[in-house]
Every structure is written in C-alpha cells, then in structure tokens.
Write a structure and sequence with these properties.
The chain has helices spanning 2-23, 25-40, 43-54, 59-68, 72-82. The chain has five helices and no strands. The chain is mainly α.
C-alpha cells in the first residue's frame, strides 16, 4: 500500500509541479490556486469522509486515496525547482 501510494503521489506531484513550473503564466497561477484549495483541506478529513462514504475500502482504493492526497507538497517543491 505504501509503495503504491508513494509512486502515485510522486507521479502526480511531479507532473503538476513540472507543468506549473515550465508553463508559467496563467497555467501556473491556476494550478497553484487549485493546489492552495486542496492543501487547505485537512488530509485526514478527506480520507475519513471518502472512507465513510465508500464503506469497506479495498486495497487499490486505499492506495488511490493516500496517493491522491499525498502529492500536494511534492508539487510545490517540483514547481520551485523547475522555476
């Protein structure tokens, strides 16, 4: 579960951060504001809400949930390095 979530977070964070850093302009502003909104929500709250809605979470769902909420900081870091 951990390896799959880290790989997913790595791919998402690198893609979004790299795109924002390379394109710049309105693309950078749009992606970073969307990232600000995503980072303003507590990760644990998102995970609890989705798991409560889903009921029993399968392994692939857990990997997707943790990976989809774990890339925010990495995207900021990649964007800064690319810029």
């Amino acid at each position: 579960v951990a390896s799959g979530a880290v790989v997913m977070a790595l791919l998402l964070g690198t893609a979004v951060g790299g795109l924002a850093g390379m394109r710049g302009g309105w693309t950078d502003r749009l992606l970073m504001r969307a990232l600000d909104v995503a980072m303003s929500l507590p990760r644990v709250l998102i995970l609890l809400a989705v798991s409560a809605f889903w009921g029993v979470v399968p392994v692939w769902g857990l990997i997707a949930l943790v990976g989809a909420t774990g890339w925010f900081d990495l995207a900021r870091l990649v964007r800064g390095e690319v810029r």
